[in-house]
Specification:
The protein has 638 residues and is of the alpha/beta class. It has two domains: 8-316 and 396-489, Rossmann fold; 510-633, ANL, C-terminal domain (GMP Synthetase, Chain A, domain 3). The chain has 19 helices and 31 strands. The strands form ten sheets. A seven-stranded mixed beta sheet has the order 5-4-17-16-18-19-20, with helices on both faces. A five-stranded parallel beta sheet has the order 7-6-8-11-12, with helices on both faces. The chain has a four-stranded antiparallel beta sheet with strand order 23-24-25-26. Helix 5 (92-108) packs across helix 9 (218-227). The structure holds coenzyme A and adenosine monophosphate. Adenosine monophosphate binds at residues 248, 294, 373-377, 395-400, 423, 487, 499, 502, 508, 513.
């Protein structure tokens, strides 16, 4: 593809010719205590390690470095919370001071370098401070999204084995106040690992009870530490040491602990800020995501701060706080130059304000680009955003595992022609091959699994927390010499990638990654359920929604509606409200192959009203008609 005025082709070719020279050069934008022995050491780790031998500190690079360079009085973080009516700006000086003090609090409650700290917090400035405070002392944070239930939190506590947990008394979801502390207490009760300290930020909307000896009041601890003049300095850690663990849905109830290192992560993220997002230090970059997700880690917390830009922490929704003009208000008020969010947020806005009439109420002349990720960007939403905002709308393809975009349209290098439905081309560091089930490379426009030849670039996961075996089995063994993305798609004749669907049980609900396999495990625990299937069905707002099919035990004569409601509550209480599991139906039988495999893909096609054929291996074709009938009764599958 002729790259018009874009430097993309040249830059990508430079990386292909000499990846070590490419990343070695990018690494000059980061401050190191000790330089690497090798840019890439192919002999260590699961597929090699980046910047082996180097020492650094991520929080130093996000904070002190900018203060030393004279940016101390510049805004580092803006907290904007329509749900509490608060806006607060922290300069680099102030944020550095807050983080250094909070780090000292962590040290005082016994957290040491290498220890894990779980952060279970809403979208407030203190969540970012907590992440940076851990990074500063070399502790490994693990942020758990607030929409997960106690049981999910307990699973993560048992896997990460944290010494301390940082949390807040409550989160505010639109007009609802969600008390976090009872969920935290329940999770600790359920978990086998007991943290020795919990640092709780009291919010006036719902104060939490404090358990003496274990819980510390965040504000009091910080005030006391500050009054003593105690601050913790940045600790030199290895570039290959873990910065954080972020749990993400896999195929089972046991989430995968994606590990991120310090050195490669900084190098990759710093590179993206100018070359991909085209942001200069001092500009305001807003990722309207949540710190509980990878986008929140990379582009609310780390990348904007590594770059000396201003990040925005938004405690609100795209709609309802107070209306579908919320995003435009924030952009105009804080002079946001780039917004990064999930397509579902735009679908929500479009639904409330189809003509975009609220846009005209605000001066959006500061906005240069909109970036979308987290799920497939449907061309209709993309076109609507382009037309209404009159800025480039960039779809880019991501995974929690990669930590930054695999493919996109690099604004900083110069835009490539846009093709709706495609997140454009592979970024330096990633080569994309489309493979069939036997690992054979497919040609242009042929659909298969998208795989990335090893090694993965800096910033991508080196392994899963405490589980190298699961890492290899999940990602490296399906295709020899490759990382399998578990995304199906194709490349067109110009090398543009099209990411169509997951090849596993993962579904994407309102930009949130969830596992249908995990939901099935929970549903199957209901005493009246003999077997079940959960599939992701298309939804105009949330992209996908889970739908559960239950076969009841013989002889169960209770009201079906009652059982369905109990199953909904079970999933809500076990996984959390974020699962959005509300669509459940009792069926007589599930369609299966003769070898007993549930035909989920065919069920999904029926539910989505797509053309479907009866699989040749089906045991009893009549069951598909039964499913169709039940779905029709719910207004689905037409
Ligand atoms: N804490 C507690 N509960 C939460 C939560 C949190 N952080 N986030 C979501 N929930 C709850 C919601 O309140 C809702 O509960 P309900 O069933 O009682 O109504 C449930 O989880 C489902 O949430 P969600 O799917 O987000 O639906 P919604 O109707 O609240 O909001 C959108 C819909 C589209 C506005 C919202 O999902 C959104 O802004 N999505 C963008 C996602 C995103 O940024 N993803 C990151 C990738 S870039
Ligand atoms: P997560 O790990 O939550 O970021 O979810 C990753 C998954 O979301 C990917 O494997 C894709 O299935 C999907 N995804 C993310 N971004 C895109 C995109 N731009 N286009 C299509 N699918 C996407």
């Amino acid at each position: 593809m002729a790259a018009t005025e874009s430097r993309y082709d040249d830059v990508y070719r430079f990386w292909q010719r000499d990846p070590e020279a490419f990343w070695g050069e990018a690494a000059r934008d980061v401050d190191w205590y000790r330089l690497w022995d090798d840019v890439f050491d192919p002999y260590s780790g699961q597929y090699g390690r980046w910047f082996a031998g180097a020492e650094c500190n991520t929080a130093y690079n996000c904070l002190d470095r900018h203060v030393e360079a004279g940016r101390g009085d510049q805004a580092a973080l803006i907290y904007d919370s329509p749900v509490t009516g608060t806006t607060k700006t922290y300069t680099y000086n102030e944020l550095t001071d807050e983080v250094a003090t909070l780090s000292a609090v962590l040290v005082d409650v016994g957290v040491k370098t290498g220890d894990r700290v779980i952060i279970y917090m809403p979208m407030i400035a203190e969540a970012v401070m907590a992440m940076l405070a851990c990074a500063r002392i070399g502790a490994v944070h693990s942020v758990v999204f607030g929409g997960f239930a106690a049981n999910e939190l307990a699973t993560r506590i048992d896997d990460a084995k944290p010494v301390a947990i940082m949390s807040a008394s409550c989160g505010i979801e639109g007009s609802k106040v969600i008390a976090y502390k009872p969920l935290l207490d329940k999770a600790i009760e359920l978990a086998k690992t007991k943290p020795s300290a919990c640092i709780i930020l009291q919010r006036p909307q719902a104060e939490a009870s404090i358990i003496p000896g274990r819980d510390y009041d965040w504000a009091q601890a910080v005030a006391l530490t500050r009054s003593r003049g105690r601050k913790a300095g940045p600790v030199a850690v290895k570039a290959t040491d873990p910065l954080y663990v972020l749990y993400t849905s896999g195929t089972t109830g046991q989430p995968k602990g994606v590990v991120r290192d310090n050195g490669g992560h900084m190098v990759a993220l710093k590179w993206t800020m100018k070359n991909f997002y085209n942001i200069d230090p001092g500009e305001v970059f807003w990722a309207a995501s949540d710190v509980g997700w990878v986008v929140g880690h990379s582009y609310i917390c780390y990348a904007p701060l590594l770059h000396g830009a201003t990040t925005l922490v938004y405690e609100g929704k795209p709609v309802g706080t107070p209306d579908a003009g919320a995003f435009w208000r924030v952009i105009a008020q804080h002079k946001v130059v780039s917004l990064f969010t999930a397509p579902t947020a735009f679908r929500a806005i479009k639904k409330e304000d189809p003509n975009g009439s609220l846009i005209g109420k605000y001066d959006l002349s500061c906005l240069r680009a909109l970036f979308l990720a987290g799920e497939r960007a449907d061309p209709e939403t993309l076109k609507w955003a382009e037309e209404k905002l009159k800025v480039p709308v960039i779809d880019h393809w991501w995974q929690t595992e990669t930590g930054w975009c695999i493919a996109g349209n690099p604004v900083g290098l110069g835009l490539l022609p846009v093709k709706h439905g495609s997140p454009t081309v592979a970024m330096p560091g990633f080569e994309l091959h489309v493979l069939d089930d036997n690992g054979k490379r497919l040609g242009a426009n042929e659909q298969g699994t998208i795989a990335i030849p090893l090694p993965m670039p800096p910033g991508c996961l080196p392994t899963l927390w405490g589980n190298d075996k699961r890492f290899r089995e999940s990602y490296l063994t399906q295709f020899e010499g490759y990382y399998s993305t578990s995304d199906a798609g194709y490349l067109d004749e110009d090398g543009y990638v099209y990411v169509m669907a997951r090849t596993d049980d993962v579904i994407n609900v309102a930009g949130h990654r969830l596992s249908t396999g995990q939901m099935e495990e929970v549903v199957a625990r209901h005493p009246d359920v003999a077997e079940c299937a959960v599939i992701g069905v298309a939804d105009a707002l949330k992209g996908q929604l889970p739908a559960g099919f239950l076969v009841l035990n013989a002889g169960v004569s209770r009201d079906h509606k009652e059982i369905e409601n109990e199953v909904v509550s079970l999933v809500r209480n076990d996984i959390g409200p974020v699962a959005a599991f509300k669509n459940v139906m009792v069926v007589q039988r599930l369609p299966k192959t003769r070898s007993g495999k549930i035909l989920r893909a065919t069920m999904r096609k029926i539910a989505d009203g797509e053309p479907w054929t009866t699989p040749a291996t089906i045991d009893d074709p009549a069951i598909l008609d039964e499913i169709k009938g039940v779905l029709a009764g719910r207004g689905m599958g037409a």
